Amino acid sequence: YHLRLASLADALFLKSAAIMHEELAGALELSIDEIRRGREEVQRQETLKASFSGDGPSSGVINSSKSLRPYALRDYWIARGAYLEQRGALVAANVLLQETIRHARAHDDVAVEARAYLHLAKCAARGNMPIDAVKLQHRGQTLGGDVSFWGESMCDYTMYKLSTRDGKLSAKESLVTALNLLQSRSNSSRR
Fold first, then answer.
1. Which of 39, 61, 161, 175 is least enclosed, having the fewest CB within 10 Å?
2. pLDDT tens profile 149-162
């Protein structure tokens, strides 16, 4: 909540309000205690998966519906990582987003994992590594996401491709590929 207000205040050039909301949000970097807590949750989740993996036959049908769940640690981490990336704290954002990916994978939360890759790609692009940004962006796109994810993703992906050496030649091709991937995902989710 406070990170959104800090972003808004920053966009409106209200520096003192942005600083106040940043302070109210608490520490933005990942603390050792948070890393430990997150890794314990991952371990618990992996143990649960292992204990239930042999129970019951699998129908082979992929469930694409998303159930409601409480706000998790990974949701807070992704918001903080995105904010750090916007502020230019790329190292802290990378660490936070890598932990977010580990946590999201353990909990089978592909939407958060895809969004984390999107922000990692933005960090790579800001760090003047457009090829890495393209790779990270593509990894996020293969996981999927909601409509806002795809809009932001395809726009950024085209921008990253244009900043590579062969970008002007392949940006259109890359955008068409991303659109085809989105179309195939939407067709498979309708079935």
1. 61
2. 877 877 787 777 77
Place of tokens 């903080």: 80
Q: How far apart are CA 146 and CA 66, in angstroms?
A: 11
Going 70 to 73 to 76 to 81, the CA torsion angle's sign is negative
Is the pLDDT reported for residue 56 higher than 60?
Answer: no
Residue 39 or 116, more confident = 116
Alpha carbon separation from 177 to 163, 171, 174, 182 (Å, rounded): 18, 10, 5, 9
Contact of 142 with 176, CB cutoff 8 Å = no
DSSP characters over 51-96: HHTTSS-------------PPPHHHHHHHHHHHHHHHT-HHHHHHH
* pTM, rounded to two decimals: 0.66
- Identify the three-state secondary structure at position 165: coil
d(CA 137, CA 164): 14
Q: What is the pLDDT of residues 112-162, one digit of tens each?
A: 899 999 999 999 988 888 888 888 888 888 887 777 787 787 778 777 777
- Are 134 and 160 spatial neighbours (Cβ–Cβ below 8 Å)? yes
